[in-house]
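ok new one. same drill as before - structure tokens go in, u give me an amino acid for every spot. 779 of them this time. try not to just spam alanines like last time pls lmao
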């Protein structure tokens, strides 16, 4: 309650029945376990504050020791005994993988004993030396979060040392530190808090949301709960895994308490109760409890003990325990401390009888809570985690552009996550603009029209100092006018084709009005001209060559470069032409797949094929495929492989039908295929092919050309940003010529900026540029 009133946490302990004794028990002679989550980019600020506030000599980070594990110690000792790498590998591989320690490995494994005999040294001495060293500290490091605070100088209580940053580090690990009675706190760096902060600041920039307060949102908001019900929780704290998404789809949560319960149950141990929890929620299983006095306590979780606090409430109300005593019982049960459990069982039964319960029923209730208490989760943690998750999901549901800006910046180096987030952003109606030499910053940003702009840091192969140089030059001297202006203003060390090519392949120079192939063909001529001019911009102006116009790169090659440099297909996707040809009710997106689907059909672009042989010698394959929403592994067993082998090539588009399963030992899902078809042929099956057997989208043609006049007033009012949004939402096959009134400059926009014909496009353009400044000329 003190933490809540001081705004250390925004979780109301009374509203959520969070028990003080679970945190600080007057009947337990131990310091409380305090965990504080802070944004991952501000942890250093907190450490600096602690040292300033309490004094350098009273604050220390906690040391941890890595010990010499059995396999590592065998390798180390073997190396000291003079074995070569090959001999060391042979000895190490002979060790069993499931042995508890070296002694067990020696006793259980004849191959290991034989390998010790075969080494060209005294194998018995090698083993005995390794056995004596096993478990000893190997090296030290810092605990990921632990910090100890003391009222007195720490050196009076325990040994300390200076860390690399000049701050104190304990020479004892966390166990002895706590045993000495010192206060240990965990300051956990959490990237999701940084994501939330970025999203909130972006929301509050909007005029109609300037006063938005995330603390006051409705935690039973249906639009947010709908995301959870559909498993659309990528980017949502603790709800991103495939296993969690599958549970959410089964559970169909319709209230915040269901989210809290799912968070608590999706952990080793409690997971075994998930099928019962889901069945009881949907009325498919009776909500039986041993005694009706427990019904109200367990009603929110459908009669199943999910939280440690429920164990404490039952002990208090059924058996008359104090909450402090109930916490000791909960602790004994969770640690499976047989002696303490037996001693407290008698107190429990006696207390229940004193409150008027039958002793046999008391025995049943004790057995019931003992079974569940072993796996109960701390409700305080579950509520706090789930509230953060709900807040992120709320922003995702109501302010998607702000949400995706935040998660994309957080995951900017993770191409797999970026691809997933971008696909989701597009599906949710967020306009995504590619990197731009004149509009992009380092990371993802939002323009005035609400579109999401990729940053220069999204481009693989661009050095950080090069990006910083570009942004600094643009801020100091204005936008780059054309290719020659860009190259002329770059620092000499960056005037290299290999430095500029990633910008071209990523589309960051498209706004100069030439296709990518033409810019690539012209780079060296412009770079040479600057060299001849000797840094004289006036001389360079007279030597500047013209852009060498050539045919654009083939579509597949252009998309391939986008994938290589951005991690995503930006101006299109290889499967897009096929999506309209196969009805939506006949196929699924990868993101919507769930374990248990027996006949799921997806359209995938093949990224990689791995062929192996079974123990019988038959060939089978694992195919890595992707669509607009994500990636998945597809398994083809030998019989199907024989029929489909010719189709299994990278860059093929396939229609796959099969069963969705959990990958063994992993959180990801996979499809075990039962049919595989070439996408071009598959569309005939759905009756959507043209005479060449290709999707109609592949054979559509231009009907004319757009002419746009950009007035000086429109340009000053930010028309170009708005125009980019229209181009993204009305992309088509009709060329566009833009004429700038202020300079008289004419630009033929690249193919990725061509437009559809029709009144919708005309109206959108006229709203931005004015009715007299937009003309569509038929061919």
């Amino acid at each position: 309650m003190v933490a809540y009133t001081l705004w250390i946490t925004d979780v109301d302990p009374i509203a959520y029945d969070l028990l003080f004794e679970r945190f600080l028990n007057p009947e337990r002679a131990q310091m409380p376990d305090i965990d504080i989550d802070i944004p991952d980019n501000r942890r250093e600020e907190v450490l600096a504050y602690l040292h300033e506030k309490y004094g350098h000599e009273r604050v220390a980070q906690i040391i941890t020791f890595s010990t010499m594990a059995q396999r590592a110690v065998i390798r180390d000792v073997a190396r000291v005994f003079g074995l070569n790498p090959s001999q060391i590998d042979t000895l190490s591989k002979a060790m069993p993988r499931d042995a508890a320690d070296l002694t067990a490995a020696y006793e259980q494994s004849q191959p290991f004993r034989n390998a010790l005999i075969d080494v060209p040294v005294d194998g018995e001495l090698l083993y005995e030396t390794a056995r004596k060293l096993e478990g000893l500290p190997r090296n030290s490091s810092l605990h990921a979060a632990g910090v100890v605070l003391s009222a007195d100088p720490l050196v009076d209580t325990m040994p300390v040392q200076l860390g690399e940053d000049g701050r104190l580090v304990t020479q004892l690990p966390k166990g002895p530190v706590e045993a000495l009675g010192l206060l240990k706190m965990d300051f956990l760096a959490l990237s999701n808090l940084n994501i939330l902060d970025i999203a909130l600041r972006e929301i509050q920039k909007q005029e109609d949301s300037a006063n938005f307060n995330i603390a006051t949102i409705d935690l039973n908001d249906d639009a947010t709960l709908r995301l959870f019900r559909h498993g659309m929780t990528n980017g949502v704290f603790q709800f991103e895994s495939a296993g969690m998404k599958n549970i959410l789809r089964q559970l169909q949560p319709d209230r915040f308490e269901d989210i809290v319960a799912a968070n608590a149950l999706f952990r080793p141990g409690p997971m075994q109760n998930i099928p019962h929890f889901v069945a009881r929620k949907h009325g498919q299983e009776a909500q039986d409890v041993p005694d009706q006095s427990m019904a109200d306590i367990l009603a929110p979780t459908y009669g199943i003990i999910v939280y440690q606090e429920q164990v404490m409430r039952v002990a208090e109300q059924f058996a008359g325990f104090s909450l402090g005593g109930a916490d000791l019982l909960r602790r004994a049960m969770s640690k499976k401390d047989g002696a303490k459990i037996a001693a407290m069982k008698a107190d429990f039964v006696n207390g229940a009888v004193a409150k008027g319960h039958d002793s046999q029923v008391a025995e049943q209730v004790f057995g019931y809570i003992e079974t569940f208490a072993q796996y109960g989760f701390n409700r305080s943690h579950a509520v706090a985690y789930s509230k953060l998750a709900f807040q992120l999901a709320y922003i995702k549901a109501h302010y998607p552009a702000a949400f995706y800006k935040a998660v994309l910046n957080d995951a900017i180096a993770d191409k797999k996550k970026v691809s997933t987030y971008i696909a989701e952003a597009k599906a949710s109606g967020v306009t995504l603009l590619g990197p731009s030499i004149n509009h992009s910053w380092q990371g993802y940003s939002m323009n005035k029209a609400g579109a999401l702009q990729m940053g220069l840091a999204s481009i693989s192969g661009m050095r950080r100092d090069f990006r910083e140089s570009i942004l600094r030059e643009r801020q100091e001297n204005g936008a780059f006018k054309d290719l020659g202006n860009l190259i002329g203003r770059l620092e000499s060390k960056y005037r290299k084709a290999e430095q500029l090519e990633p910008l071209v392949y990523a589309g960051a120079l498209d706004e100069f009005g030439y296709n990518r192939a033409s810019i690539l063909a012209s780079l060296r001529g412009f770079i040479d001209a600057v060299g001849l001019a000797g840094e004289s911009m006036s001389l360079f102006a007279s030597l500047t060559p013209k852009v060498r116009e050539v045919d654009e790169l083939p579509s597949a090659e252009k998309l391939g470069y986008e994938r290589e440099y951005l991690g995503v297909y930006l101006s299109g996707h290889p499967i897009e032409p096929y999506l309209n040809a196969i009805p939506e009710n006949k196929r699924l997106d990868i993101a919507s797949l769930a374990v248990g689907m027996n006949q799921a059909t997806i359209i995938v672009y093949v990224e990689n094929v791995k062929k192996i042989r079974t123990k019988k010698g038959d060939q089978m394959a694992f195919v890595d495929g992707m669509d607009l929403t994500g990636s998945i592994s597809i398994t083809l067993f030998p019989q199907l492989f024989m029929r489909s082998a010719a189709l299994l090539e990278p860059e093929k588009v396939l229609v796959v039908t099969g069963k969705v399963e959990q990958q063994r030992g992993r959180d990801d899902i996979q499809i075990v295929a039962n049919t595989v078809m070439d996408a071009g042929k598959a569309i005939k099956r759905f009756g959507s092919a043209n005479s060449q057997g290709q999707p109609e989208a592949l054979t559509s043609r231009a009907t004319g050309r757009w002419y746009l006049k950009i007035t000086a007033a429109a340009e000053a009012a930010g028309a170009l940003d708005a125009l980019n949004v229209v181009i993204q939402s009305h992309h088509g096959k009709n060329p566009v010529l833009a004429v700038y009134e202020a300079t008289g400059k004419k630009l033929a926009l690249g193919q990725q900026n061509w437009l559809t014909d029709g009144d919708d496009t005309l109206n959108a353009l006229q709203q931005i540029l004015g009715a007299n400044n937009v003309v569509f000329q038929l061919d």
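The two ends are 73 Å apart (CA to CA). and btw The chain has five domains: 69-135, 195-385, 412-566, 576-697, 701-778.
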